[in-house]
Specification:
single chain; about 190 residues; mainly alpha; 3-stranded antiparallel sheet; 3 strands; about 65% helix
């Protein structure tokens, strides 16, 4: 089911990327449109490659999810503004959605939405503009650190390269493994 769902998304995006699902329990391969799994020998190099890709994908997803759940990402950015606590932060979030939208609004609008004095609305607006500039600066610094002048960006692999790897891993190796399977069963 998952493989077919992914294939549907790729088709909708008009992307032609070969995919295969690797079930963890029995290490079976599932190909889109085929409910019968392909079973490779346990010692197959193709199976080991796919297992390593799966394990690394899981590790990456888990670490990314943990990073997203840090305190920095849980506490609302709006709570850093003057005159704003949890309840007002929730109101600001529902009214403006983002710090960018808040910073581009008017102090009187903020005061009206929060039912506070207009000078407090102006304070919040001024602080939001400063905070927004700091965030933009921080993001650009991170980008420059990650890809500084002496760093080369890694070029994504082309579809042809990925396709040939998939063919090699699934096509040629599957045929070879099928022959080994036949010999093993005899």
């Amino acid at each position: 089911g998952q493989v077919n769902a992914v294939q549907g998304v790729l088709d909708a995006l008009d992307l032609h990327i070969p995919i295969v699902g690797l079930a963890e329990q029995n290490e079976e391969l599932y190909i889109p449109g085929n409910s019968t799994p392909l079973v490779l020998p346990r010692r197959s190099e193709a199976l080991r490659l796919l297992q390593r890709v799966r394990d690394e994908t899981h590790r990456f997803a888990t670490s990314k999810n943990q990073a997203l759940r840090t305190k920095e990402n849980i506490v609302s950015i709006f709570e850093e503004l003057p005159h704003v606590g949890k309840k007002r932060a929730a109101l600001l979030l529902s009214e403006f959605s983002t710090l960018e939208n808040l910073a581009s609004s008017k102090g009187s609008t903020i005061a009206e939405k929060l039912i506070i004095p207009e000078n407090h609305g102006e304070d919040i607006l001024a602080a939001a503009k400063i905070l927004q500039k700091e965030r933009v600066k921080k993001i650009s610094q991170k980008a420059n650190t990650a890809y500084g002048p002496h760093t080369q960006r890694i070029k994504p692999a082309s579809d042809d390269y990925i396709g040939s790897l998939a063919d090699l891993a699934l096509g040629t190796q599957v045929a070879a493994d099928s022959e080994q399977n036949k010999e093993y069963k005899k």
